[in-house]
Amino acid sequence: MNVQGINHITIRVSNIKSSETFYLNVLGAKIVHKGNTDIYLDVGGVWLCLIEMKDAKPMDKNQIGVDHVAFTVSEEHFPKAVQLLRERKIKITRGPIKRGGGNTVSFNDPDGNEIEFFTGSLQERMKNWQ
């Protein structure tokens, strides 16, 4: 078997319309497909599927599961990304700070799913974690 990369990430959301607005306006996502309870987005070449789960409850931070999704942002555009979060009054949960070989800032989508913008590479991060 030869896994070539991540194909897509599916995120459960409580309201497809508010999540669509968030991912389009904050992450610059492009709509690939839009259904009644799902939407497929392209975010910098990453395929995200948002699926509406009306009766779902937010995950407890101590549960097993995905902790966060991190997107690469260039050093050059990182200050603009942080400024955008602040202008849109999106609560920053960590940062902006220099950590793991790059600049990082973390924030939540409307349902509390944690998202990170990170400027470093895997190689830079490993140098810092050794």
TrEMBL record:
<dbReference type="InterPro" id="IPR029068">
    <property type="entry name" value="Glyas_Bleomycin-R_OHBP_Dase"/>
</dbReference>
<feature type="domain" description="VOC">
    <location>
        <begin position="5"/>
        <end position="120"/>
    </location>
</feature>
<keyword id="KW-0479">Metal-binding</keyword>
<protein>
    <submittedName>
        <fullName>VOC family protein</fullName>
    </submittedName>
</protein>
<dbReference type="InterPro" id="IPR004360">
    <property type="entry name" value="Glyas_Fos-R_dOase_dom"/>
</dbReference>
<dbReference type="InterPro" id="IPR037523">
    <property type="entry name" value="VOC_core"/>
</dbReference>
<dbReference type="Pfam" id="PF00903">
    <property type="entry name" value="Glyoxalase"/>
</dbReference>
<dbReference type="InterPro" id="IPR051332">
    <property type="entry name" value="Fosfomycin_Res_Enzymes"/>
</dbReference>
